[in-house]
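Submission checklist for the structure archive. All mandatory fields must be present; incomplete records are returned to the submitter.

[x] Identifier: NudC domain-containing protein 2
[x] Organism: Cyanistes caeruleus
[x] Residue count: 154
[x] Sequence attached
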Amino acid sequence: PFEERSGVVPCGTPWGRWYQTLEEVFIEVRVPPGTRAKDVRCSLRSRHISLAVCGQELLQGKLFDSTVTDEGTWTLEDRQLIRIVLMKTNRDAGNCWTSLLENEYAADPWVQDQMQRKLTLERFQRENPGFDFSGAEISGNYSKGGPDFSSLEK
């Protein structure tokens, strides 16, 4: 897949990091080594998330945008990392989340720019499956998903 070849653009947080693709938002939360699944309380709703480990709230609030509730998952990896995957409701390149929660964990302007570039290149890859955009550089106006070439004849 494109995102595996082109890497991710992570946004660091006090508890870990988050990053996104056209379709999904990934959240990685560091937890104390030895954490067990029964110690984890995770609630994933369309516009809200909450995560507590051993009774301590690590993450809670209103998400930046809506997600598909039934598609959200969380896993505990190596008993020290919780990975949450949320499926975006709006899956186009113009829907680049600038923060994880509405008013919290915002990407700094440079990271936001890199995230938008990546989503735009991912969109180009989908529209042109015969080409490899994983090493491509992009400049110019790529905000809101970049230029729309759909009206051009093939």
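[x] Structure attached
Curator remark: The chain has two helices and ten strands. The beta strands are 11-13, 16-20, 24-30, 40-44, 48-53, 56-62, 73-77, 81-87, 99-101, 104-106.
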